[in-house]
Write a structure and sequence with these properties.
By secondary structure, the chain is mostly helical. It contains 3 helices and no strands. 34% of the residues lie in helices and 0% in strands.
């Protein structure tokens, strides 16, 4: 399958990827290989094969979702490195730029 530079740029824009012009040729080749592989998958006979919703047959051990007070506020804050008596205190991780 042939991919041109305009298609590469469109896909990169949709995926919010920055494409270095020096890497365009290599990326075009990689995309062509990927799409050729996907086309090859169309040759597989999947007649009678049910679609999978999960890749494993494992079952989750579910419990009823009931609200209950398992841990008091004081017990939860007891070992916190920083708190104000009501909330955990954590270092600032985001800068607000206006």
């Amino acid at each position: 399958m042939n991919i041109d530079k305009e298609t590469l740029k469109k896909v990169a824009h949709l995926a919010r990827l920055g494409v270095d012009p020096s890497m365009e040729k290599e990326m075009l080749q990689d995309m062509e290989e990927i799409l050729t592989w996907v086309e090859k998958l169309k040759e597989v006979d999947t007649e009678g094969v049910a679609p999978l919703t999960q890749m494993s047959f494992e079952k989750n051990a579910m419990r009823p979702d009931k609200a209950k007070r398992e841990l008091s506020k004081d017990a939860g804050l007891k070992n916190a490195p920083g708190h104000d008596g009501h909330h955990f205190l954590v270092p600032k991780v985001l800068d607000q730029k206006k």
